[in-house]
Design goal:
This protein has about 475 residues and is of the alpha/beta class. It is about 30% helix and about 10% strand. Strand 2 and strand 3 form a beta hairpin. Helix 9 (about 225-240) packs parallel to helix 11 (about 275-290) and helix 13 (about 350-365) packs parallel to helix 14.
Amino acid sequence: MNFISDEDRAALAARVRPFARPRYAASALGVLVIGMVAFARMAPPADAPAALDLEAAASRDAGAEAGAGTSLETAPVEPAPPMPGPTERLETYEQPELMATPEPLRGIYVTAYSAGAAGKRARLIELARETEINTFVIDVKEVGHLSYRSTVALARRVGADSHYAIPNMRAVLQEIRDAGIYPVARIVVFRDEVLAEARPDLSIVKEDGSIWQDNNGYGWVDSFNREVWDYNITIAREAIEMGFAEVQWDYVRFPDVPQSYMKTAVWPAREGRTKEDGIAEFLRYSREQLADLGVPVTADVFGLATSAADDLGIGQNWKKMRTETDALLPMIYPSHYARGSYGIQHPNANPYDIVFAAMEWARKRTEGVEGAARVRPWLQDFSLGEPDYGPAYVRAQIEAVYDAGFQDWILWNAASNYTAEALAPERGRAPRFPIPRADSADADRDGRRGGPVGRRMRVRPDTSGVFRRQ
């Protein structure tokens, strides 16, 4: 394709002809251009300091101090500032007026992004105004990342607050409190990839000293380490000062990983303690350290913890934890129970039966115990496999909590999208739906199969009342 006309080509040839007459003009021009480029590359930039007079510099060095060498020396490298302590703060806030724990407490989980986005936050506040919801559980720390700009010096230093979702946490909390909603600070404790990477001395390690990671590639900190405890407690204190009314520890446990991974893990601060003793000790210590703030300190646990006789291999022993917190929150998601749990062949299709059985165990192992924690279950408002969890499935879990003798509950949805049709309206009657049930194993109702398949259960679940509303 021609881009230049014949007339333009002729004119261009006439212009360059005088410069092309010497046989080697083009070659000379090329050499000149190359030379100019080479000189430009070697020359210092325009803003560079003048070249050093090496002889003068050597003379000055020699005369500056007797016996000094005559060679130039590079400036000394400033040592890195010491790592802040786990309790060091750059600033403190004045704690606002305490909010009383709702009676009963009925809540939802709110992601950091949902709390930080004005539109989504407004919709969730409106949901609370129109229904029985009175509590928001909001992300403060997740996998080591804080959801706001922190005043905790160590968090700043390791970059834990470098990607925050809530620009002004105190303003958000004030808006939530003004709406009469009880704000709970969710703090993931021991699954902390940020602190583990920045402070290997505080992490779970391998025998060669390298940082240990779980089967999903996450680093965990040493659950026995007092500095790790103090770091999380300092974050909790900051959260309360900003306006939260309760501290909720999550991942207050050891990793739940295949045995091949667990065999490679070393906890440097263990000092002979068992996992369950380490977790109970942390809960006791954190409650003592936060006592002056006057707020409840609570903890999430696996749903199976309500009925397991041991610590499930993760340090969560119900009997040892039940007196160390103000509330325990078993995550009783029907989709997370194995086939045959509590004699129920298809747990996910029988939400009422699973929740009732788990809560019956919690009641039997908690009531009458002096200083025992409140039991406040997490319930499922999401679909995981079949069937889809609509209003009837969500409401069935809530009704099972009531029938087991409890009043508090919190719904979990990872995107903070909730089924409003399953909730009772403000000062109205709760919706009623048929209780979903499908393919329960009649032969297993006497409990002979024990607990979930593949999980050791020394306590045989009592299913005598599981089907009483059938």
